[in-house]
C-alpha cells in the first residue's frame, strides 16, 4: 500500500532563514510525488513534482525537493523564507488503482514565518 | 489562476437539504476529481471522472453522487445533508489518467450546513 507521512504538523521559521518540510512515503514502486501549497481560504497550488527524472526537483517561488529512494523521503526546502510563504503545505503521492491514479494527501504542514 | 472554476463559492443550507456543486475543468483536461477538506478528516478524495465515465471512487458517502457531462463539466450532488458535511469541496482536473499528470485545483466551494 502507498501512503505519505508529513512528519511535522507545524513549522515556524524566521524570515530569511531556511525552510525544511519533511515528507516520507511508502510505495511498492517508484511513485510520482508532489508538493502543493494552500494559502488561507484558497485552492491548492502545485509547487513541484517528481516523476522519476532528476531526483532534485526545482519548483516555483524558490522551493525545491529531493527524492531519496533509500530514505523514502521527499523533503521540501527553501533557502530563505519569506513572509508570503506562510501557508499549509501538502505532500502527495499518486496511487495506482484500477487503471487510473488517485492522489493520497499527507496531513499537511502549517508553515509560520516570523518577522 | 489554475483555470478550474467552481460555483458557488459559498453555500449555506440546512440539514436534510440537497445541494449541487459545479466544476468546469481546464480547457483540454478530460479528468475531473472531487475532494472534501474538513478539519477532522483533512483532504479526502471522493471520486474521479474521465471523459464522462466514473474511474475511481474514494471515501464518498452514498448520499453523495457526481457526474461528468459531455462538455466535461462536472457536478457533485450532496443530499440529506448533515452537520458533518460542512467542509470545503474542491474540484481538480488533469489531462488524462497518468500517475504523473498534475492535478489543477479550483478555488473550492465552502459548504455550511446549519
Average pLDDT across residues of chain A?
91
The end-to-end span of chain A amounts to 41 Å
- So what's the overall shape of chain A? globular
Helical run tally of chain A: 0
Class derived from helix and strand content of chain A:
mainly beta
Strand count of chain B: 11
Largest sheet of chain A: 6 strands, mixed
Residue windows where pLDDT falls under 50 for at least 5 positions of chain A:
none
Helix content of chain A: under 10%
Number of strands of chain A: 12
**Mean pLDDT over the full residue set of chain B:** 94
Strand content of chain A: over 45%
Helix content of chain B: under 10%
| Unreliable parts of chain B | none
The general outline of chain B is globular
Spatial gap, N to C terminus of chain B? 31 Å
Specify Rg of chain A, calculated over alpha carbons.
Answer: 14 Å
- DSSP strand content of chain B: over 45%
- Count of runs of 4 or more consecutive helical residues of chain B: 0
Topology pattern of chain A, helix = H, strand = E = EEEEEEEEEEEE
Encode the helix/strand succession of chain B as letters: EEEEEEEEEEE
Would you write up a description of this structure?
The complex is a heterodimer of chains A (115) and B (114). With 115 residues, chain A is mostly beta strands. Helices cover 0% and strands 57% of the residues of chain A. Chain B is mainly beta and 114 residues long. Helices cover 0% and strands 53% of the residues of chain B. In chain B, strand 4 and strand 5 form a beta hairpin. The termini of chain B are far apart. The mean pLDDT of chain B is 94. Chains A and B meet through strand 6, strand 10 and strand 11 of A and strand 5 and strand 10 of B.
Note the main attributes of this structure:
heterodimer, A: 115 residues, mainly beta, 4-stranded antiparallel beta sheet, 12 strands, globular, B: globular
Gist?
The complex is a heterodimer of chains A (about 120) and B (about 110). Chain A has about 120 residues and is mostly beta strands.
Amino acid at each position: 500500500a502507498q501512503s505519505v507521512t508529513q512528519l511535522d504538523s507545524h513549522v515556524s521559521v524566521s524570515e530569511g532563514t531556511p525552510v525544511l518540510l519533511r515528507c516520507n512515503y511508502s510505495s511498492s514502486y517508484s511513485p510520482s510525488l508532489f508538493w502543493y501549497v494552500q494559502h488561507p481560504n484558497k485552492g491548492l497550488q502545485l509547487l513541484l513534482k517528481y516523476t522519476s527524472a532528476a531526483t532534485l526537483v526545482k519548483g516555483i517561488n524558490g522551493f525545491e525537493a529531493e527524492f531519496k529512494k533509500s530514505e523514502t523521503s521527499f523533503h521540501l526546502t527553501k533557502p530563505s523564507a519569506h513572509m508570503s510563504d506562510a501557508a499549509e503545505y501538502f505532500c502527495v503521492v499518486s496511487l495506482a488503482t484500477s487503471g487510473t491514479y488517485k492522489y493520497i494527501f499527507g496531513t499537511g504542514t502549517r508553515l509560520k514565518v516570523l518577522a | 489562476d489554475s483555470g478550474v472554476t467552481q460555483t458557488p463559492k459559498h453555500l449555506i443550507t440546512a440539514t436534510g437539504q440537497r445541494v449541487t456543486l459545479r466544476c468546469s475543468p481546464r480547457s483540454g483536461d478530460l479528468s475531473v476529481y472531487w475532494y472534501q477538506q474538513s478539519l477532522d478528516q483533512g483532504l479526502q478524495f471522493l471520486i474521479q471522472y474521465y471523459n464522462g465515465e466514473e474511474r475511481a471512487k474514494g471515501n464518498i458517502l452514498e448520499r453523495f453522487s457526481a457526474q461528468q457531462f459531455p462538455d466535461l463539466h462536472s457536478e457533485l450532488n450532496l443530499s440529506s445533508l448533515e452537520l458533518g458535511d460542512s467542509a470545503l469541496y474542491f474540484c481538480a482536473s488533469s489531462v488524462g489518467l497518468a500517475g504523473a499528470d498534475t492535478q489543477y485545483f479550483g478555488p473550492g466551494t465552502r459548504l455550511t450546513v446549519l
